[in-house]
Amino acid sequence: MPAIRDFVQRLPKAELHVHLEGSMPPGLLLELARKRRVSLPADDEAGLRRWFVFQDFPHFLEIYLTCSRCLRDPEDFQALLESFVEQQAAQNIVYSEVHFTISTHLTNGANGDEVADALWQSIAAAERRGIVVRLIPDIVRNIEPTAADRTLEWALDNRSRGVVALGLAGMEGPSLAPFREHFTVARGEGLHTTAHAGEQRGAEAIHEVLEVCRPERIGHGIRAIDDAELVAKLAATGLPLEVCPTSNVCLGYAASVAEHPFDSLRQAGVALTINSDDPPLFGTSLIDEFCALEKAFGYSHHELAGFARTAFEHAFLDAAERKGYLERFDQELALLNS
Fold first, then answer.
1. Catalytic entry in 199, 208, 242, 289
2. 3-state DSSP: the chain helix, strand, coil percent, rounded to 5?
3. Each residue's pLDDT tens digit, 117-159
């Protein structure tokens, strides 16, 4: 069998939890910040990487929002998406579902239609080379509900241009009640749904999103491990978690990958997908995440391939698309195993 990193590299992969704004590499951030006259705490890539050593979640948000302020005109969004596509292509990630906080950019003065046009042009170009990207506009739970209205409107307007789902992100804590109707409408209009929960807060946050948002996947969800009944429910229903181990460690929600609840959740039968969240900000990649889990828990080639296949099984694909991806995956895995 190939060495682990080579094996994971050669597997066709899907990534279901990665943020577009958080995928901005330091070099592009420097370029866009100079162009847009956004002040940064460092003027070189090494300095930005030191800034990226997070102190806490508010510090992470400061960095994330700084990256967002550097995105103003359509060509800025295209430059970021094209950079992201190159990152995914280099890892043989053939399908990605990408969180995108459109409300932040609308608040910053971007034209929503122009942003959608620019992103769609880059998405279409990527698809012609075999790299598929789909968008998940995020409602941010800790800002005013009118921003959620704009997010839902933008999502519905762009269902034919790459939007597949409505998401939920932001600081865990504020009540989700104001957003119940947004998710009800999204489901009624044929959008899929996913929600961040159980990262900053405990299992009660997961219970809340399950009741209010009724998501098809949970972003992070690692604090489910604190509630045995919830873990059993997730396992019984097959509701998957989008797990981002290095992100959880960097932000202080797990002491290390070896102490991460990933393997305990796996052993309990919960469906798990592996993701990178905000890869340049955390100094990681999807391949790094697979390798870190293998190092921590001793997973076999077969088990790692199973995690990769699970992502395609739970992606927001129609039946024919899913069948095609799974057939390709099984064929390429058979070649790797031969």
1. 199
2. 60, 15, 30
3. 999 999 999 999 999 999 999 999 988 889 999 999 999 999 9
